[in-house]
Amino acid sequence: MAPVVPKGETKWRRLWAALAVLAALVIAWGSLTPGSELPESLPWDKASHFIGYAGLAGLIGLAGVRLPQALLISVLFGAAIEVAQIPVPGRFGGDWHDLLANTLGAACAVSALNVLRYQQGRRPVRG
């Protein structure tokens, strides 16, 4: 039986889902832009990966996707982006350090949501 969504929460979940799609599109656009079209130096490259994927996983979790699945979706999306970067001129796809930063960011967001849900008295969702 599917969990019952509290009244009034559906509109918020739709908003979070739309923002998650937008975040994924922004991440894909930024990640797949040729190197020649990017600023010469991007500060805190790994922090950008961490923050971007933390936001993505957090939005997916807020949209109502089970947290383990939100983490998995974010990590797989990051891996797909790394592979898609390989043929992009001026980009170095397949960077394990980027993938690690993506995974750590997503894991931190999912962990934070799990703690917040627990503090609100909502049972953590296992999936």
Automatic annotation (TrEMBL):
Transmembrane segments: 46-63, 70-87, 99-116
A Pfam family hit: VanZ
Alphabetical UniProt keywords: Membrane, Transmembrane, Transmembrane helix
VanZ-like domain boundaries: 44-113
Protein name: VanZ family protein
